[in-house]
Structures are given as structure tokens and as C-alpha cells.
Amino acid sequence: MMSELMLIVILGAPLVMALWLAATWLAGFEPSERTISRTTAVSFVVATAATGALTWTMHGSGWAPVIVDIGNWFAAGAYSFPILLVVDRLSLPLLALTVVLSGLIGSFSSRYLHREAGYLRFFLLLHVFAFGAETAFAAGAFNLLIVGWELVGLSSVMLIAFFNQRVAPVKNAVRAFAIYRVTDIGLLLGVFLLHHAAGSASCTLLFHGIWPQQDTPLGAGTATAVAICFLLAAAGKSAQAPFSGWLPRAMEGPTPSSAIFYGGISVHLGVYLLLRAAPIIQKSPVAPALVVFVGLVTAILATLSARTASDAKTSLALATLGQLGVIFTEAGLGFERLALLHLTAHAIIRTLQFLRAPSMLHDHHRVHAAAGGALSRTGLYYEALLPINLRRWLYRFALDRCHLDTLIDRFVGDPILRIARRLTAMERAGRAVSVQSSARVLAGTSVNEVAGG
Amino acid sequence: MAAARLALTTVSIAAPVVGAVVATGQERPRKIGFASAAVSLAALIAAVWLTPAASAVLAVDALAAAPALAFAALVAASFLIAPSADLSGANCRDLLLCLAGALTLYCAHNPFLLIAGFAVSALPLLIPHAARGRRAALKAPIALGLSALLLAAGSIALMTATSGTAAAFALAAVLLAALIRSGVFPFHSWLFSACERPLPFVAVLSGQAGAFVIARLALPHFPQTALSTLPYITNLTIAGSLFTVLVALGEVDPKRTLALLRASQNGFVISGLTSGALEGITGALVHWIVAAVAAGGLILVLRCLEARYSDLARQEFDGLAARTPRLAAFFLIFSLALVGLPGTLGFCSAELLFHGVLEAHPILGLALPVAAAINAIVLLRLFSRIFWGRNRTHVPPMPDALLRERLAFTAMTLFLIALGLLPHSLITSRVAPAEKLAALTQPLRHQ
Predict the structure, then answer these.
(1) How far is it, in rounded angstroms, from Cα A294 to Cα A309?
(2) How far apart are CA B400 and CA A29, in angstroms?
(3) Do A188 and B282 count as a contact with CB atoms less than 8 A apart?
(4) Per the CB < 8 Å rule, is B336 touching A73?
(5) Which residue of A has its CA nearest to B427?
(6) Which of A174, A185, A417 comes nearest B369 by C-beta?
(7) Is residue A376 very low, low, confident or very high in pLDDT (cuts 50, 70, 90)?
(8) Cβ neighbours around B444 below 10 Å, total
(9) CA closest to B372 among chain A residues
């Protein structure tokens, strides 16, 4: 009973904060910065204490999973949407990580965003994010995981466009949102397939045993289909190839949000999905190889791209991508515990690096000056061993982020937009599109230009 | 008790008619319009409270209760929100007659009353509007007039049909009327011209009647021999949803974009209704309320902005969030509800609807989540074009949401979020009528 109560407190604290901030603002009031930061601190202290108590209780019971079945959220016919929460060896570290890192980000941001126009908006989105991530990690059914997954995606997009008076963040936010929505189709279809095949998307029915020694009664065919759908969703959320382009673009948001989203929690949600669905993935004859392939390709491409990154946050974003690729590989190879350990350590270190990024350059200059200007030596990279033509090609390749965005635009985005514009032209003209308008449409702008309008 | 029910239902229809008569010729009829709609809503709530009876000529049964209440509440809200320029005496009269017609349609258990309600609820759109060229002005009256005539012809033929073939033709006429009225592909172009009128809100709500006619008239009278055609309707509406949302992707005009998204959402609803799966039908019955409230909210926010800023969407980015942050927030919430974000009622309805349609049509059904994803992208892009991208100093001064607007928008937002968090009672209330509709198409599922 104690564990159930703690879990509800952990999830409830950010939800109550988010609803309170939204309702207050919509009613025409705007709490002061001090009120917002103090209530945020209280909510995260309460949630952290509850996480500590939950951990202690679980430790006392030999790490037995805590299962809270609140009943069906809604149901019709054979379909039901259970509110089933499960905290086990996989979700507990991530739940704790989310609560602690979100609290630290809240504390850091109360100073970092002082007198910023979107102060309340940032904290509102931080609480929405915390609630979404905690829901996703504690979800005992894949349907419920979608709820947290989507809320994390939405808050991520809104924070990329935090400085919405500039065009670049807005366009990048729309692009990230488009990638999220398209790849989230994989999660929806995966859940549908689970319902169709097993009659439920609940982990307690789909998996036998305790994580990571779990098995599933699903057949190999169903497992392959579900695993591929989940891999699509995970690749989108964790910015794996070929969807890696949005992550460096997401650096337009304020640094604290970059830290918690793209260093700490949000980008690791894809890995979490793979780890949670590990029995399904390992049951498939091809899915593990696909996961390893996606991870390795991402790790290599991100490492290459990072060599040409010219600013601190982009370098960190690409370094994150490289590590995520390695974690994907570990998950695909069946090293779930290693992947979880790697994920946790990476989230902590990367969050710290992102938070240090704004002052890093200043520190570097200070140390550089103190050392008499002899710190940075350039031109001594391994690339220097390569032939000059190959080096140039690699440079251009890496500078364009391995052409991933270009390829998506050219083969997916732009053709769809061309079709859309042609259909719109037909609608407007009320007749079949003329040769001239076709030519105009074909000569239209690229997906980048359209992303923002 | 039966007399009280009938009296309350009649009051709910008569109140807007009386309001329409009083409002005609008035210069500022906002209060009269709101009062009439509020009385109508109150009478309707009381009628629903007194356990609906389907046997009477006019009665709010389980199928009609939720959409009728939503319609009346939305019209009342629109009287609070609509800019004064939109609420002339004539427009106010038309809107109230539209409400009376819609309630007659929802409450009618007699085909003639149903036809009358169907026609009157489109009244504001049946009168040619000369604002945008002759051809465009006639599109909506012709399409909606044709759909009313088809419904009348089909209903009368259905009552008098002696052979299966005659019944099938009659049914085809009814279905065609419903599809035209819903504005689903390929009958969506009237929505554009309708949205250019002073009350685009009516155009957005008008499509509800098409889906309702399918549920009330078409499915119960579907001859067994014609059941095999039902999947074609589902397929047409799924493909139509994808088509219209692709057109929306290339569109830059905000009103046309919203009209296309509304057509796409109507396609979702009809595909769910005709899917034959209980989950799909229940989802559709909930989603038509969500789509009405969310799309109605979106078009009302847009009209509020147009009234404040005549250059809306003339350039790539307007940056209006700097001046109207609350209108921006309402627009965002309605958008997210329409595309099924968790925490809003749209998520629950979309979950059920997609699940049912995918169960019934596993291949073409895949187009539905794709269309939903594009819906979401189009809406966020539209939001970013209107509200983001410019500095406060570059946006002309304008007021944010006024108190009356804020009250109405907040009520709509609360409806979407509160029922999104606690959807059980609403969805359970939709299961009973959905079971009846599913039972009608059971033979199809066993084929």
C-alpha cells in the first residue's frame, strides 16, 4: 500500500503543478518567479522523497516489482485502456533519474531564466515533461506508455520553439514535431498489433518473469512486426538514423531544456522502449540485428558529424547521438543490463555537460589565458592520415550531417509536399492542374522552407 | 413524465426560433442570441435528465443526447465569442434557426421532421453570399440544397420501396446526401466557400448532420443485400481523409486549411461509424463531439484574430502570440484535442476509432494514423505561422482574449481536458447506441 501511494505521489506532483500553473495563467493571473520556483522546488523535493521511500520499500522486498492496477481508463467492446503502473528493476532507476534531474533543472532554471519572458511557460512545460516521462517509465501497459511518450514529445517541441520570436527555432520545432508524429505511428501500430494478437498491451500479460529475464508467448511473426514498429518509434524519439537530423536542430531551446531533454531523459525514451520490449525484440529472428544496425550506423555517422561541429551545444548533441547509437547496439545484442547502466550514466554526465556548456567557453578562455595560450593544438587529428581528396569528401559529408536530412527531404518530404501542392493547386483551380502550374509546383521550395510555412 | 419530456424538447427547439424572431432587425442581438441558446441548452439538459424516450416523435435518445447537447452548448459559446461584426440581426437569426434545425434533426423520430431539421440546420449556408464571386458564392447553397433534396427523395423512397433494388437506390441517395453534407472527399469544396461567410463556425459544425444521418437513418435501414457496399464507404472516407489532409498540407490560407482538416476529421468519424466494429463506432460517436468542439474552437479563435488583425496570414509568420498569448494557448489546446493528444478527449476517441477501423480494415486502415499524423503537422504549422516567428515590436498592438471570449473558450477547454482525463462516463454512455449500430452490421463482420 505504501509503495502504491509513493508512486501516485511521484506521478501526481508534476501533474498538479502543471495543471495549477496552466489554470492560473488562463484565469489571467501570473504567479511571481519566486512563487513558481519555490512551488517547483517543493514538488520535486516531495517527489524525490517519495522516490527514495519507494526505493527503500522495494529494497526491503527483494526488488519485487510494484504493480498498481487502477482499472480501465476507458473501454469499449474488446478494447480496454488499462491504467496499470509497474515499477521494476528497469523503471525504478529511470523514474528516480527523471525526478532528480528534473528537480535539478528546475533549480538551475530558476536562476538561469530569471526575468526571461517565458519563465512560467518553461516551468509549465518542465512539469508536463516530468509527468510525461514518469508516466512512460512507470507504464505497465504499452497503451499508457503512449500517453507519457506523446506528452514528452509535445513539451520537447514547445521548448525547441521557446524563443519563438525567431524563425529558426520555430522551423526546427515544426520539423522535430513532424519526425515525432510520423515515427509515433510505429508505436500506435505496435500497440494495435499487440491488442490484435494477444488481446492486450499490458506488460503483465505479455511478459513472464522479472526483467531482464523475461519471455513472451508471442509468436516470432507477431514479435517481428511489433518489434519493427517499436524500432521505428524508438529511432524517432532517440534521433537514430535516418531521423538524426532533428537533434542538433533542437539545440535552439534554452540550455536547461536541452540538458534534460537531449542530454538526460527524452532521447533515452526510445532506448527505454527497446529495453521494455526486449522479450519481443529478442523473440524476433531479425529485429535484434536491425536494432544493432541502426545503432551502429548512428554511432558512426554521429561521430563523423561531431568532428565538424563548431559550437558547444551541437557538439554535445552529436556526442549524445553517438552514445545513443552504442546503447542501441547493446540493447540489440541482448545486453539489457549494460544498456541500462550505460543509459543512466550517460544521462547524468550529459546533463551536467549541457548545463556547463554556457560557461564552458568562458572557463576555457580563462584557463587558456592562464596557461599562456598553449592549450589548444590543431591539425593533429587522425583524419590527417587520410588522402586529401577523401578527407575533403568526408568533411563535406560530415558537415551536412551525413546528408540524412537532405535524403529525407529529397526522397520523402519534398515529394509529399510536391504532391500536396499539386493537389492544392488542383483544388484552387477547380480543374486538372495545368502544365504551367505543375512546372511552378515542381520548382517549389524545399521541405525546409515549408516546415515553417 | 412523457408530456414533460416532449414539452422540454419542444422548448429546446422553440427557444431559438423565438430568439430568431426577436433578434431580426436588432443592431446588437448578442444577448438575445446567447439567452435563447442558453434556454435551449437548459431545456435540453432537463429533457436528457428525464430519461430519454425513443417512442415519441420528438425525443432526445441515447444516440442524439451528446451531439445535441454539444451543438447547443457550442452555439451558446459562439454567441459569446463571435466578433460583433459577425453578429448582425440577420446572422444572429440564421445561427438560431440553424440551432433549431439541428436540434430538430437530432430529436426527430419521424422522417419528415428529420428532413426538415437537416435542411433548416443548413439554412445560413443555403442563402447565396456575394462576398467572393458568383461561382464560389453558389457552391455551398447548391451542395447543401442538393444534399437536402437527396435526403428527402431517399427517405421517401425508402419508406415506399417495395423491392430490394429500390431500397438500395433509396439508401444510396441517403448516403450521398450524408456524404455531401459531411464535406468528405470528393464533396469537400463547398466547405471552402462556406468558411468565407461571416459565420464560418456554422460551416464547421454543419458536417455533423451528415454523420448523424448515417447513424440515424442509413445504418438502421441498410438492406442486408446492400451490406457488402458498406466497406466501400469506409474505404472511400479513409482515402478521402488522407486526400483532404494532403491538400491541407499544401494550403496556406488558414480558413481553407481548417475547412480541409474538418473534412478529414468528418472522414474519420464516418469511417468509424461504418467500420462495423464496436470500438470504431464508439470512437466515432465520441470523436464527432470532440471534432465539433475542437474545430469549432479553432475557427472561432481564427475569427477573433481576423477581427483584430486584418493582415492575418498574409506573410510567412505573424507572431501574434506576443500580443494574444491566451488566444494562442486556446488555439493550441483545440489543435491538440483535434489530433488526439493524451490528456484531451480526442486521444480517447482516436484510440477507439483507429483500433476499430484497423480491426475491420487492416490494410487501408493504416492510412488513418498517417492522416492523423499529417493533421497534427498541418495544425502545428498553421499555429506557428499565425502565432510564432516575429518579435513583439513587429506586431501591431491588439487585445488578448476578452473576458466573454475567455469564459467561453475556457469552458470548451475544460470540456476537452476534464473529459480527456475522466472519459469513462461519456464513453460508457456512447457504448449503448454503438452496440445497436454494431448489431446492425454484425452480418458484415461475419462474412
Answers:
(1) 22
(2) 14
(3) no
(4) no
(5) A74
(6) A185
(7) low
(8) 18
(9) A181
Share of chain A above pLDDT 70, in %: 93
Which tens digits make up the pLDDT trace of B397-416? 999 999 999 999 999 999 99
Distances (CA, A) of B48 to A5, B53, B117, B176, B419: 39, 9, 19, 31, 19
The length of chain A is: 453
CB A227 within 8 A of CB A278: no
What integer best gives the mean pLDDT of chain A?
Answer: 90
For A395-416, the three-class secondary structure string (H helix, E strand, C coil) is HHHHHCHHHHHHHHHHHHHHHH
**pLDDT at B271 exceeding the cut of 90:** yes
Say if B247 is an interface residue toward chain A (CB within 8 Å): yes
Size of interface A-B (CB pairs under 8 A): 150
Q: Which residues 47-106 on chain B approach chain A with CB closer than 8 angstroms?
A: none
- Strand A208-210 vs strand A213-215: parallel, antiparallel, or unpaired? antiparallel
From CA B129, how far away is CA B109, in angstroms rounded?
Answer: 33
Residues written for chain B? 447
A373-402: average pLDDT: 83
CA separation for the pair B43, B13 (Å, rounded): 9
Quick one: CA dihedral A265, A98, A205, A283, positive or negative? positive
Distance CA B153, CA A439 (A): 45
Per-residue pLDDT averaged across A74-82, rounded? 91
Q: Is the peptide bond before A285 cis (omega within 30 degrees of 0)?
A: no
* Phi, psi for residue B130 in degrees, rounded to 5: -95, 15
How far apart are the C-alpha atoms of A423 and A311, rounded to whole Å?
A: 41
pLDDT at res. B88: 87
**If pLDDT is split at 50, 70 and 90, which confidence band does B331 have?**
very high
The DSSP code sequence of A257-310 is HIIIIIIISGGGHHHHHHHHTHHHHHHSSSHHHHHHHHHHHHHHHHHHHHTT--
Q: What is the mean pLDDT of residues B247-260?
A: 92
Please, which residues bridge with residue B108 across strands? Answer: B58
B-chain residue closest to A168, CA distance: B389
CA distances from B163 to A270, B157, B217, B218, B407 (A): 59, 11, 18, 17, 55
Residue B1 grid cell = 413524465
The predicted model scores a pTM of 0.93
Query: Residue A401 carries which side chain, given as an amino acid letter?
Result: R
Contacts of B285 in chain A (CB under 8 A): none
Cell, residue A3 = 509503495
Rounded-to-integer distance, Cα B96 and Cα B420, Å: 29
The answer to whether the CB of B381 falls within 8 A of the CB of B252 is no
**Contact (CB<8Å) B247/A424:** yes
Maximum mean pLDDT: which of A22-26, A223-227, A424-428, B117-121:
A223-227
Stated as kind and residue range, the H or E segment containing A74 is strand A66-76
